[in-house]
Amino acid sequence: MALAKGTIEEITTRAARYPSKQSAIIPALWAVQHEQGYVTKDAMGEIAQILALPPSLIEATASFYSMFLTRPEGRHDVVICVNAPCMLRGADEMTAYLGQQLGVRDGQTTKDGAITWHSTIECLGACGGAPMMQVDHHFEENLTPERIDAIIQRLRRGVAPGEGAAGPEHASDRIKPSRSGGEGPSASATEPLRRKSPKRAN
Amino acid sequence: MGLKPLLTKDFHTENLEQLAVYERTGGYAGFKKALEMQPDELVELVKKSGLRGRGGAGFPTGNKWSFLPKGVYPRYLVCNADESEPGCFKDRYLMEKSPHQVLEGILIASYAIGCNLAFIYIRGEYLPQHEALEAAIEEARQAGYLGKNVLGKGYEIDVILHRGAGAYICGEETALLTSLEGYRGEPRLKPPFPAIKGLYGKPTVVNNVETVANLPHIVINGADWFGAMGTPTGKGTRVWCMSGHVNRPGNYELENGTPIRELIEEHGGGVWKNRKLKAFQPGGASMMVLLPEHLDVGLDFDAIQKAGSLAGAGAMVVMDETTCMVDAARRYVKFFHHESCGKCTPCREGTFWMSNLFDRFEAGDAKATDVDLLLDIGYSIDGRSFCPLGDASTWFPRSVIKFFRDEFLEHVSEKGCPFKRTAQEAVA
Fold first, then answer.
1. What is the spatial distance between Cα A110 and Cα A108, in angstroms, rounded to a whole number?
2. pLDDT at A178 over 90
């Protein structure tokens, strides 16, 4: 699949801003993944042509970073953290529950093609709201079985992450030692464009 | 001592992420003042303030700036927003709530070191924060804070926001620079340090998000004002990320030197479920475990180091009496194994074997001698790799073995995790 004109333009514009066009490799991979959902070898070849760099260099870089996907996944990505700070607050139980509710194993996609889920040992940076998971780049914190149910339902209905999710206060946003800090869900909760979540094998 | 909102003082102001609101709270006054000063004066000011880097190593910021070789241009400033240390979530908060504060700090640092092109390397997972910064850069550009002739003062500066793609190693400054150049994020040997040979082989300063966020306040209020806060070797405040078994986890900005006890018991509301404190980690995944007897140590780089751990990136992970220390260490070791870039054999292979051994303990397949085998592997990694990732992978497990060796042996004698068994019995 040839890259869209807009993607090619984005890559050349980015490349012109950097002192070295090679710095545009990661932005180019993002642009491709944004457009196509994942990055094929052909697309990497196109990036190489646009930037006038060897394809091997693009592949070497792409294969290092875990967020670049090389195959299609479900319409939504759900990544649940199992690192120690999340483990301390019940991440293992939530992970088991999530897997059970989705009916597929870690790394797999549900039969309706709606959700690909996996656990990750990489900390996602929301330990104050542990246990947490990332749903298409939106952080869902303070998980409970009930919240997981609601999120799955929402995703299956096709509602964008963050929308209509009046969850509890985001603990990791708290700055004052008060429970009524008035911190609602983050202002940037909605995802304007669908971008893929990291691919992590645990 | 105690709560001291400096960076976070206006965080309850609505729409602080918007330029006009940020300016109303005094925003960009620091950059305007800085532009009236000579760059060297700024470097001296920051040196005198005693500001130390908030990314983990605690290196004095002004000194870092002054290492740039005279007369070598171009030179670059890179803001390290690749926050990935397990337990750490302060930069995310600082960028999302007040992206202009971070940007203003970057502009001040850039002007001070004579740089005309700055970068923000933000981790790929932080998309909302990426968008907040992107919008802030655009607003600042429209307002004339960025561009060819900033506020008519003849200074040129542009800021490029660069999104990472999922690699903890890129938080290490040389790996970050390699990644920014488009390569696989592998670290480089130091020396030469980035100040001499950094991005594209040019003199480069890498500063953490929280570090640069301090700069507007230092410029406005002066070095003496900043120096009056904190401890003799740890001036100012820090935003502590508290997680784990406390009643109120979250970010708390405290004056340096505040006792750990105050953070956990007062601000965090103490250990949850009326349980007892077993251990805590003051610096995130990398750092050694401390015990309840260390609760009166101050939150300060030097004090925590003296107590046997490191303050690192300011992440306080609290563990109650029901915590399996072996499993906690296992998670961290698996994390480091996963994130090892593979460049250095001791780290790549060592973290793999440590991870395997920890799995054996949890599964009940380990032998008593495996405890010392773990230590042995740890010694073979520490100090034998290019960057601190390998070293740091061994610090927490080794400290856990030191204080909780009995727990490892219980895993052997009971052929499995005694804590999980207790939990299951409690449920049944």
1. 7
2. no
Q: Which domains occur in chain B, in start order?
A: 19-228 (3.40.50.11540), 231-320 (3.10.20.600), 325-427 (1.20.1440.230)
Distance in angstroms (rounded) separating the CA atoms of residues B286 and B113: 31
What tokens appear for B93 in the block? 């908060």
Q: Is residue B231 less than 8 Å (CB to CB) from chain A?
A: no
| CA B421/CA A149 separation, integer angstroms | 28
Residues of chain B found within 8 Å of residue A19, distances taken between Cβ atoms: 74, 117, 200
Phi, psi of A87 (to 5 degrees): -55, -40
Tens digit of pLDDT for each residue in B7-64? 999 999 999 999 999 999 999 999 999 999 999 999 999 999 999 999 989 999 999 9
- Look at A29 and B132 and tell me if their CB atoms are within 8 Å: no
Q: What are phi and psi of B116, to 5 degrees?
A: -110, -5
Write the pLDDT tens digit of every residue in B287-322. Answer: 999 999 999 999 999 999 999 999 999 999 999 999
Enter the ipTM: 0.94
Q: Is there a contact between B166 and A65 if contact means CB atoms under 8 Å apart?
A: yes
B323 and A88 within 8 Å at the Cβ level: the answer is yes
User: How large a percentage of chain B has pLDDT more than 90?
Assistant: 96
Within 13 Å, how many C-alpha atoms sit on residue B251's CB side?
Answer: 27
Count of Cβ atoms closer than 10 Å to residue B194 Cβ: 24
Please give the pLDDT value at position B246.
97
Contact B248, A174 (CB under 8 A): yes
Task: At B375, list the tokens.
Answer: 């230590």
According to DSSP, the residues that pair with A139 across neighbouring strands are: A134
As a whole number, the mean pLDDT across chain B is 96
pLDDT of the residue at A1:
74
Report residue B178 as tokens.
Answer: 């390699």
B182 touches chain A (CB under 8 A): yes
Are A55 and A88 members of one domain? no
For residue A173, pLDDT over 50 is answered with no
Largest CA distance in chain B: 74
In degrees and rounded to multiples of 5, residue B255 shows phi and psi of -65, 140
- The answer to whether residue B87 neighbours chain A at the CB level (below 8 Å) is yes
Burial class (CB in 10 A: 0-12, 13-18, 19+), B360: middle
Domain that holds residue A13: 5-64
Please give the tally of structural domains in chain A.
Answer: 2
